Amino acid sequence: MTDSVIIDLLILGLLLAVNMRLFFVARGQRDAIVLLAPVAFVICIVSLLAWDISLPKGGILLLSFLVLLENSHGLWRFFNQLYIDSFSPLLWLVSIVNILLILAIGFVVVIFRPVLPSQDVEVELKNYLLVGTVHSGLAPRGNFESVDVRILQSKPADTDSPWTERGSSVVNPQRAEPHLPLVLWITDVRSSVSRVEPIATTLASLGYEVVVADFNQNMVLSSQLRLQSLFFADDFEKKLATLQRESSFQYEAILNYFGGEKDLSNRRVLLLADGYTSEGAKAVCLMNEYVAGYYTIDGEDSLGSYNTIPDWADGFGPLGETAPWINYLVMETPLLESRDETRFHSIAVAQQVHRVFSDILVTQQEVPAEVLVEGFVEELVSPNQMTVEGES
Q1: Fewer Cβ within 10 Å of end Cβ, the chain: N or C?
Q2: 171 pLDDT more than 80
């Protein structure tokens, strides 16, 4: 099991102990077990800060808060050094309902637990945080600054190729090993860095440096959009034009963070997209000639081909591996066993991306960059055009 699942089960175990104490704590004793209620709530808050919020985690948070409120009198009694006289009939009823809810949520957490990362993919990983906006520019996060962008950077473990870093993207002449092709991927709001990590690491193992950037760090707004995409699709569709325009600015901001044309013009830069970010990748590829091309998962690429991935949910990432509970909701025929132990999507997407990017890089070597851009200029649109087209 992943660390996130273990923490969820720990919280549920603490809540279960709080509610089960009514069956074995006798009269005349101190009610020390009630202290587990605030402990469970604090752990739940910390876990939400460490991992992405999800419907199961939201349910655990709500349940832990209710259990804390329901046992507030018990906490007052304990801190005033009073002994148990009796438990009220209402508390007995509420505790029995809580026990049933805890068992139900625990069942969901176990059945829809994420698949463990593959041990066969050998890559180096870097995780770091940025602050700033797409207009003012991005910078490394300082102490006590709120996070605006979360970055996952990965490359093969068996390479001496240097990391691409801010302001130092030019190859060091003292290093014999050149830079790997640089792949930039902006996540859809329905996804996240952790959600797409299996694809990013699998692709990196094939000989790329992959940078995944997640600009959706506002927990409230991101959760609202994700719930809309699942249960209120029409409302989410109305916001796609705005999200598409923002994704183009986000790709530009990440390119500029790594030095833009000045530092990346001698690099093989490629863009990867999923869901609505495909429009942003297309536009940015048009506006920057040093970008070799782009690929959209279950969509088109800069060579004019359309790539299909069976049972892919646009914008959500490899659900069968990282979010089986969402996979259950979006499947045409929902199955209780919605986990993908075979890692089909991660492997299939990474191999298809590798094949297309190899063709793009070979084509770029044979044809001048300006000719390549002219070849698909009519198919691409600028960010401003995207807004108009999306609203029409």
Answers
A1: C
A2: no
